[in-house]
Structures
1.
Amino acid sequence: MRWLRWALIALALLGLARCLYVGLFGSAIVHDDTGEVVSAVITNALQEQALLRLPGGIFFAVPDMEGTIEIRCRDGSRQRWGYVTGSMQTRLRVEPGAGCGRLVEVR
């Protein structure tokens, strides 16, 4: 039983460390309510950083660069929205609408 207590403490500390990391270095999150988004990236004139696709239509990244979020849809269309940089939280939601949907910034 003693090992279980230490394992739970270690998991709690790991979770806290992850929260602090994201809090310090920022995040870019896209919630896809439509199911039409194929991928999402942070992009600028020089480079791209892919957002990790998670279950439930969520895309996530800790930004390594400054830029905007671009979503790429099943129908081939692309949309850009928001501003992303390190130590800043950016959250977008793709809501139902014409084509791929409508991008809305979540506050």
2.
Amino acid sequence: MNYEYMILHSNWWGKWSVNITALGIFLHIFELPDLPWLKMTAVYAATFLLAVSLYQYLVQFINSIKVGRAQ
């Protein structure tokens, strides 16, 4: 049986979500009393970006499987 391996690359949404997650962790470690809303905003934004990234990654993964089976 022949197998072809396709490397799925990270997308823009995932890269931004990692950076915003790091910002959220930083804000949870170092409290900023002037910006109390920024912690949860970073968490919600990272969650949204991760969901979009996961969706795009799964679509790309499913398409690569379909192309692999067609060949």
3.
Amino acid sequence: MIHRTQIELIDNKHEELTGKELLIPVDMVFRVDLVMSVREHLEEETNEINPDKCVIYFFEEKSFIIHTPYREMVKLFIEANR
């Protein structure tokens, strides 16, 4: 199963030049059956759970904060791993 979502990448050049972080939204697709685990996303600034995002971890120890609600991703994760 393939899932389409969005992630945010840090513009390293902008950060190097200005000292400020700039996030650029980009589209992403991935195979749900390659996800090892899923967790809720905790916003660093507020220490609150963001219901519109979650963190996914792949087998090769990569992780991404994705713009997919945790509950939705859990359903996809369970379905792909039956």
4.
Amino acid sequence: MRKIYLQIIFIWVLMSPCAFASQTTPLFLMAPLFSGCAVTTNGGNISATINPDTGALSTSFTPAFKLTTLSGSAKALTYSATCNTTTTAQNAIFNISTKKYIILTNSTVLPPVSSVNNIKTGAPTAASNPNAMAYIINDPPAIAGQLAVSYNTTNKLWNLTLTHLGNTNTSITVPAATPLGNTYSFDDEPGAYQATITLSFI
């Protein structure tokens, strides 16, 4: 009986379909990884109060961002800002000589575009810019070997060039200070004064 059992096993192995199987054509799984980039908010202070006597900010604004790239090749970005008016949003950045300013407008009682334009002349008249105030804004800091920064005097924004693989942190600061002269007065009504900072890849 033992001998018959061994012979049956041997025959079954020889007749198994695996003995005649052929190899299939290889299939390659492919998922391309493109040179991606992303920007996300990364903390920093974005709220303050305004002193009703002087117009001074109680604390600095320091909005921060994190840039993430999958390539060290040069990538262009812009730092820009807008403020709202009764008609359309306006560029909130302007400069007087080498000093840069950001305009905050009253979101509760929106100002006319003329308020923003009056401030941008560099010689504002308080009665001509109700519900809009201007504060100094610092250039975003450059990071050696990673992030180059330059102010665009034509478009009134900052051009950045990122040459770093991985994560890079950046921020921009509006110091706690009094506003530009003749941009704060009793013509400015109570409300929330705002501007929108945007950092974006081009």
